[in-house]
């Protein structure tokens, strides 16, 4: 049965893969046999997490702060140079901000939108050629954007920019297959 879910020979990039849900995703991919690159804003956190996961399979630390599109472009260039192929991109890194509406600050918008919406878009745009090369018609490359229920239905979280960002991220949905 495990062969059905094997990712042996696949290479994956998980943003925010050093902790939280991203780490669980990275561990799952490693257990399935994939080689995994993870990102974190802090180099030491990234290196430590990759070192801890190395017992599960090859895990590479790629520190990156994805607050700007330039950083996403640079991350993809670095990934391409040190890992090469990319079969799976998991846009997991995310940022939130909560507060009552009457004092919800304007500064709670640009950072959340940059990390949750623009960075995933830039990562996808930059990695498209690699994903296209790595996929085949029978086994296309995959992009998984980690959304949230907050982007689908109104929740009483007072996380206005977060909910809007996750709704925007869902608009990146596309069932096109990436294959050469
Ligand atoms: N937990 C939930 O209940 C829940 C529910 C729905 C959706 N989600 C989504 O699941 C994803 C992971 O969430 P989580 O619960 O695991 O949260 P978390 O523990 O707070 O993790 C957030 C991740 O995003 C990364 N990150 C934040 N800002 C970043 C930046 N500027 N540049 C690069 N990376 C950045 C963090 O990396 P470092 O701190 O290592 O730099 C961390 O790995 C997010 O997209 C979140 O919106 C979570």
What's a concise summary of this model?
The chain has 180 residues and is of the alpha/beta class.
Write up what this structure looks like.
The protein is of the alpha/beta class. The protein has a single domain, classed as Rossmann fold. It is built from five helices and five strands; from the N terminus they run E-H-E-H-E-H-E-H-E-H. The protein has a five-stranded parallel beta sheet, sandwiched between helices. Strand 4, helix 4 and strand 5 form a beta-alpha-beta unit. Helix 3 runs parallel beside helix 4 and helix 4 packs parallel to helix 5. The longest helix has 25 residues. It starts with 10 loop residues before the first strand and ends in a 10-residue tail after the last helix. The mean pLDDT is 95. The structure holds NADP nicotinamide-adenine-dinucleotide phosphate. NADP nicotinamide-adenine-dinucleotide phosphate (NAP) binds next to helix 1.
What is the topology, as strand order, of the major beta sheet? 3-2-1-4-5
Largest sheet descriptor = 5 strands, parallel
Radius of gyration, CA atoms, in whole angstroms: 17 Å
Number of domains: 1
**Ligands in the structure?**
NADP nicotinamide-adenine-dinucleotide phosphate
Q: How many angstroms does the end-to-end distance come to?
A: 28 Å
CATH superfamily: NAD(P)-binding Rossmann-like Domain
């Amino acid at each position: 049965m495990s062969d059905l879910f094997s990712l042996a020979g696949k290479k994956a990039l998980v943003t925010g893969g050093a902790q939280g849900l991203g780490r669980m995703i990275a561990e799952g991919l490693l257990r399935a046999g994939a080689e995994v690159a993870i990102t974190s804003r802090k180099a030491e956190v990234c290196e430590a997490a990759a070192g801890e996961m190395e017992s599960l399979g090859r895990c590479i630390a790629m520190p990156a702060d994805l607050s700007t599109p330039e950083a996403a472009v640079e991350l993809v260039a670095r990934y391409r140079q040190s890992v090469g192929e990319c079969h799976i991109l998991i846009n997991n890194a995310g940022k939130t901000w909560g507060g009552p509406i009457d004092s919800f600050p304007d500064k709670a918008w640009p950072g959340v939108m940059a990390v949750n919406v623009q960075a995933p878009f830039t990562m996808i745009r930059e990695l498209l050629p690699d994903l296209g090369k790595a996929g085949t018609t029978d086994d296309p490359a995959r992009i998984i954007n980690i959304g949230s229920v907050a982007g689908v239905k109104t929740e009483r979280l007072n996380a206005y920019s977060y909910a809007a960002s996750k709704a925007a991220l869902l608009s990146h949905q596309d069932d096109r297959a990436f294959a050469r």
